[in-house]
Write a structure and sequence with these properties.
By secondary structure, this protein is α/β, with parallel strands linked by helices. About 45% of the residues lie in helices and about 20% in strands.
Length: about 400
């Protein structure tokens, strides 16, 4: 059978972090009950499109899923298992905020079959946490680190073996030493780290105090430190922003990087299969009104009512996306496969590839083109150059 991954978006948060660009909100007027009623109906109706698929991963993200009543999470998991053919060894992940996670919730999640948890910790620097709105006051900041270690320890004791922690590089007030200490202190509890670089948006307070030049130097040093420390601690650098102990790669995220099929349900969720991309509306009222009352749907109706946006990818877009995603991973781009589907990249782009190899940015081994650790520091630039080259070579058909 064909394999499918499912992403479930929970847009609710206790507060909105200043750096967050995801579709999430803390508005108390948005009903959890209405949202999950609509979400469950969307899951049921869309399952009819995937009768020939087996679900290998489920990812419940947000927002902050841990802020909603556990019964909603249970309903989501049970509905997916009822409506889809779900693999016995399915990976089920839920994103959690340490401040809204309790022992009772962890026990509940484990009981309903969740086997991977991902904590958004970000940093232990108190000034950083307060400045970006991650915490509300100094009292919360004072106890944050202790609370994080307590919930991580409890998660292990309950029996979760697959635990991931997110942290952010480039936060105001955060030093290289802070990053190094954060990783060392949390590594004893986790099998996976996701390391993200802070995005500075125009019009924010962050933009006012950080210049581009200073920020780039600042973040590169933190990234280099993170890579070095994690490697010493036995974590494999399997994707630009992700590190894991052996056997603990995120199966769900690997589907994205390998352009596998995935269904996104919930507000703003994205789907991809058959080289077609769908994105749900970000309008809460429109989403709930449509899916809360829908009995039967079709793609044309969804588009007409602006419930989804739809795009059929061209050959050029597929070729470019394949390079963009593959070069983010330690596996890299399989050149022979790429040659069969699109073109002989090694031959047609030989001069530039040779230059990158000479400068230590890429390597070619066993038919795979990969970025080196040095290359990952300038990954965006290298990937953009590859994509611009492909844009001039492949017919947009």
């Amino acid at each position: 059978m064909k394999e499918l991954s499912i992403y479930v978006h929970v847009p609710f948060c206790s507060s909105k972090c200043y750096y967050c660009g995801f579709c999430s909100f803390s508005n108390p007027n948005f009903s959890h009950e209405d949202y999950f009623k609509s979400l469950l109906n969307e899951i049921k109706l869309k399952s009819n499109l995937f009768k020939e698929y087996i679900v290998k991963t489920i990812y419940i993200g947000g927002g902050t899923p841990s802020v909603v009543d556990e019964k909603h999470i249970k309903d989501v998991v049970e509905t997916i298992k009822k409506c889809f053919d779900v693999s016995k060894d399915v990976e089920i992940t839920i994103e959690l905020n340490p401040n809204s996670t309790t022992v009772n919730k962890l026990n509940f999640y484990k009981k309903i079959g969740i086997n991977r948890i991902s904590f958004g910790v970000q940093t232990f620097n108190k000034k950083s946490l307060l400045y970006v709105g991650r915490l509300k006051n100094k009292e919360e900041a004072k106890h944050y680190k202790k609370n994080v270690f307590s919930i991580l320890k409890q998660a292990k004791e309950i029996g979760f073996k697959n635990i991931s922690v997110d942290f952010i590089l480039g936060l105001p007030f955060q030093s290289v030493f802070d990053v190094k200490r954060f990783i060392k202190q949390t590594s004893k509890f986790v099998t996976h780290f996701s390391c993200y670089m802070l995005q500075i948006e125009d019009g924010t307070k962050l933009k006012e105090i950080i210049t581009k030049q200073i920020y780039d130097e600042y973040i590169v040093k933190q990234y280099e430190t993170a890579v070095k420390v994690l490697k010493k601690l036995g974590f494999s650098h399997y994707e630009i922003s992700n590190f894991c102990k052996k056997g603990f790669e995120s199966k769900h995220n690997n589907v994205y990087w390998n352009r596998g099929s995935y269904l996104g349900v919930g507000l703003s969720a994205h789907s991809f299969y058959k080289n077609e991309r769908f994105a749900n509306t970000e309008n809460f009222s429109d989403y709930c009104e449509y899916w809360g009352n829908c009995k039967k749907f079709n793609i044309k109706e969804l588009e007409e009512k602006n419930i989804i946006s739809y795009e059929k990818l061209t050959k050029k877009q597929c070729a470019e996306e394949t390079v963009m995603l593959a070069l983010r991973t330690s596996t890299g781009l399989k050149l022979s496969d790429y040659k069969l589907k699109y073109l002989d990249l090694e031959k047609r782009y030989a001069k530039k590839i040779a230059s990158y190899k000479k400068n230590g940015f890429i390597k070619i081994e066993d038919d795979f083109l990969r970025l080196t650790e040095k290359g990952m520091l300038v990954a965006n630039e290298i990937i953009i150059n590859f994509v611009e080259y492909l844009d001039n070579l492949i017919d947009d058909a």
